[in-house]
Amino acid sequence: MSTNVEKLLVIQDRDRKISRLVREINELPARRKLIEAQLDAHKEALEQAEEVIRKKNLEQKELDAEVDKRKERIQKLRQQQFEVKNNDDYRALQRQIEEINKEIEEIEERELAVMEATEAASAVRNEKTRALKSEQAVVNEELDTFKQRAANVEKELIDLKTERSELVKDVDPEWLSRYDRVYKHHGDYALVTVEHNTCGGCHMKLPPQMAHDARKLDSMTSCMYCGRLLYFIP
Ligand SMILES: [Zn+2]
């Protein structure tokens, strides 16, 4: 036949496990976020590279249009050259054509720079796509483990609560309600040992009478400092 202290020590062990599991369950969403956040840096770099590519492609199109416009003008000027009657007019048109050709060359130089920037951004995009893919695999694995753990934690908690509800049936109700109150208040231990006349919870030196009372088998002495229930293992 176990004493109330022995029964409550078993309950305390379950309560401490329950507390740990509840803490873990509360931390699950933050842990999940932390796992998923590992991809953020890669995703951001990838988006930036894609944004650069989009912008550069647009710039390229605009420059292409500028070149086309000038080529059309040259075409018209050449047409006019066939129709002019004298050499001076012809040369004037030729100078215009040459100026426009110079403009085209300048635009094409800018296009070259745009293409180089696009290529650099493409390289970054490819690298980040690869990095993201391999990181995603790692994260997926971590998430699988995480989900498994989350499911186990829930189940363990249910099992412990069921076991506890059976265990408490066998404890003196007055003992149980005092134990529950103290455990709820402190959140770590309700029952603590007395060692060298010191409370095992708050580590304060107990008055001799209190230490003596705690030594009585299945007594219910509270520490005068922290209120935890004192017990003594002979
Ligand atoms: Zn104490």
Which short descriptors sum up this protein?
234 residues, mainly alpha, Helix Hairpins, four-stranded mixed β-sheet, binds zinc ion
Give the spatial strand order of the biggest sheet.
Answer: 2-1-4-3
Distance between the termini: 17 Å
Strand content: 5-15%
CATH uppermost class of the largest domain: Mainly Alpha
Secondary-structure element string: HHHHEEHEE
- Mean pLDDT comes to 94
Total discrete domains: 2
Please outline the helices and strands:
Blueprint: H1 4-37, H2 40-83, H3 87-167, H4 173-186, E1 191-195, E2 198-199, H5 208-214, E3 221-222, E4 229-231
Parallel strand pairs: 1-4
Antiparallel strand pairs: 1-2, 3-4
Describe the structure in brief.
With 234 residues, the protein is mostly helical. The protein folds into 2 domains: 14-169, Orthogonal Bundle (Helix Hairpins); 173-231, no CATH class.
Please, could you describe this protein's structure?
With 234 residues, the chain is mainly alpha-helical. The chain has 2 domains: 14-169, Helix Hairpins; 173-231, no CATH class. Helix content is 77%, strand content 5%. The protein contains 5 helices and 4 strands. The protein has helices spanning 4-37, 40-83, 87-167, 173-186, 208-214, and strands spanning 191-195, 198-199, 221-222, 229-231. The protein has a 4-stranded mixed sheet. A hairpin with a 6-residue loop joins β3 and β4. The radius of gyration is 41 Å and the shape is rod-shaped. The site of zinc ion has 8 residues, from loops. Residues 199, 201-202, 204, 223, 225-226, 228 line the site of zinc ion (ZN).
